[in-house]
Design a protein that fits this description.
With about 270 residues, this protein is α/β, with parallel strands linked by helices. Helix content is about 50%, strand content about 15%. Helix 9 links the parallel strand 6 and strand 7. Helix 4 runs antiparallel to helix 5 and helix 5 packs across helix 7.
Length: about 270
């Protein structure tokens, strides 16, 4: 059994399995707005807490890499007898999906990349520099207090102030430790598979919000330009976590994509 916390939802005999991989926070709970819709559509769904976060505690090595996160996913697929999955990843989770599509393409039926990227960019680097400086100078509480600024549009965060406060309190109570956070950020900052995009052939939904303040939407456009089988879903607003803030619209796009991919995979 993998030394990771994972959850399996939906019918055990479902024709398709969707594996959900979250961003820097690492928690399966990020995908709560999608779980009900996916299960209602008949999918078997796997969500997990990434190594060194949430209910998957572990000390991470300094040279921790996206490839290590990919091996964790393969362990979960093996432990759940999942030969192939539709892989949905948000931000860092999307990087895991891209790496998995390169390392074990037969395990991927399709990819869903939400506000992801193929190589570093200077704007996101500046954001992470600021976040790491805040963590080092002021500690975890200040770090998690700043997190909603990068995740959500200002108007949405103001309208959902109590929810945001609760999320900040939860993130602080379950903070994985400074060493783990630095190792995870270093892994995502080192990720660069831009020159290998043409090697990925899985059908891919690329979802992005144009008002994402952490990852420019042009990173998603670059993914679209480099991949061979792409469906684009650009939303005008919703922020870095638009699968949360615009869940209904995101879910429609997600389910439509999965339906089309599944239909095209059935022999005539």
């Amino acid at each position: 059994m993998p030394s990771l916390h994972y959850e399996v939802h939906g019918p055990s005999d479902a024709a398709a399995t969707v594996l959900l991989s979250s961003g820097l926070g690492g928690s399966a709970g990020f995908w709560q707005p999608q779980l009900g819709a996916l299960v209602a559509a008949g999918h078997r769904v796997i969500a997990y807490d990434q190594r060194g976060t949430g209910r998957s505690p572990a000390a991470l090595p300094e040279m921790y890499a996206i490839e290590d996160m990919t091996k964790d996913v393969l362990e979960i697929l093996d432990a759940t007898n999942t030969s192939q999955c539709h892989f949905a990843g948000h931000a860092l989770g999307g990087l895991v999906g891209l790496q998995l599509a390169l390392d074990a393409p037969s395990r991927i039926a399709s990819l869903v990349l939400v506000n992801a990227w193929s190589k570093p960019n200077p704007h996101s680097a500046r954001c992470f520099d600021a976040r790491l400086a805040l963590l080092g100078a002021c500690g975890p509480r200040a770090y998690v207090e700043a997190q909603p600024i990068f995740l959500y549009p200002a108007a949405w965060a103001a309208e959902h102030a109590q929810r945001v406060t609760d999320e900040v309190d939860h993130a602080f109570a379950h903070f994985p430790g400074e060493a783990n956070m630095r190792a995870r950020i270093a892994a995502l900052r080192a990720f660069d598979i831009d020159a290998r995009l043409a090697d990925i052939t899985a059908p891919t939904l690329i979802a992005a919000a144009k008002d994402d303040t952490l990852v420019p939407w042009t990173c998603s456009q670059r993914l679209a330009d480099g991949l061979s089988d792409v469906t684009l879903d650009f939303m005008p607003h919703g922020g870095h976590a638009h699968s949360v803030t615009e869940a209904e619209a995101f879910n429609r796009s997600l389910l439509d994509f999965l339906s089309r991919v599944s239909a095209s995979a059935v022999p005539a």
